[in-house]
């Protein structure tokens, strides 16, 4: 699982999920920079480190041995969760994992060293593991 090595604060404030700002198109990380093909998000979602790891595994298995993979996002935002059947109050819950807020247009994965049909199928399989709609894009 991906997690930051060091953090200034163990728990973050939740923040407000403003609809228009969260769904606004991304301005950084929107082009395929390293590989030949990429997986671009079409909708907004919070991707956890577990989901990202499952997608990475699917991508590396389907891509083959010669494929080089780049993960363009990193889950650095902690999210907390209280234990099951615990009442309200008594402070904030424990850190349950880390997430990354993906906005539309962000490239999540890139792949190189695989043929076009294999790369497209591998990225499609990786996209099914994520809680968002995504499409395969080519390098310009």
TrEMBL record:
Any Gene Ontology CC annotation: cytosolic large ribosomal subunit
The organism's place on the tree of life at top rank: Bacteria
Gene Ontology process terms (BP): translation
Region (Disordered): 1-25
InterPro entries linked: Ribosomal_uL16, Ribosomal_uL16_bact-type, Ribosomal_uL16_dom, Ribosomal_uL16_sf
Compositionally biased intervals (Basic residues): 1-21
Keywords from the named record: Ribonucleoprotein, Ribosomal protein, RNA-binding, rRNA-binding, tRNA-binding
GO MF term list: rRNA binding; structural constituent of ribosome; tRNA binding
CDD domains (UniProt xref): Ribosomal_L16_L10e
The protein's assembly and partners: Part of the 50S ribosomal subunit.
Functional summary from the UniProt entry: Binds 23S rRNA and is also seen to make contacts with the A and possibly P site tRNAs.
PANTHER family to which the protein is assigned, alphabetical: 50S/60S RIBOSOMAL PROTEIN L16, LARGE RIBOSOMAL SUBUNIT PROTEIN UL16M
Family from the record: Belongs to the universal ribosomal protein uL16 family.
Official protein name in the record: 50S ribosomal protein L16
């Amino acid at each position: 699982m991906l997690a930051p090595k060091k953090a200034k604060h163990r728990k973050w404030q939740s923040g407000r999920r403003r609809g228009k700002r969260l769904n606004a198109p991304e301005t950084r990380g929107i082009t395929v920079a390293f590989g030949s093909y990429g997986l671009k998000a079409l909708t907004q979602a919070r991707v956890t480190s577990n989901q990202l790891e499952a997608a990475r595994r699917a991508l590396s298995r389907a891509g083959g041995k010669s494929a080089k993979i780049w993960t363009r996002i990193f889950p650095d935002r902690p999210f907390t969760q209280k234990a099951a059947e615990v009442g309200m109050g008594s402070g904030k819950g424990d850190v349950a994992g880390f997430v990354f807020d993906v906005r539309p247009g962000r490239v999540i994965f890139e792949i190189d060293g695989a043929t076009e049909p294999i790369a497209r199928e591998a990225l499609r399989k990786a996209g099914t593991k994520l809680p968002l709609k995504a499409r395969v894009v080519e390098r310009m």
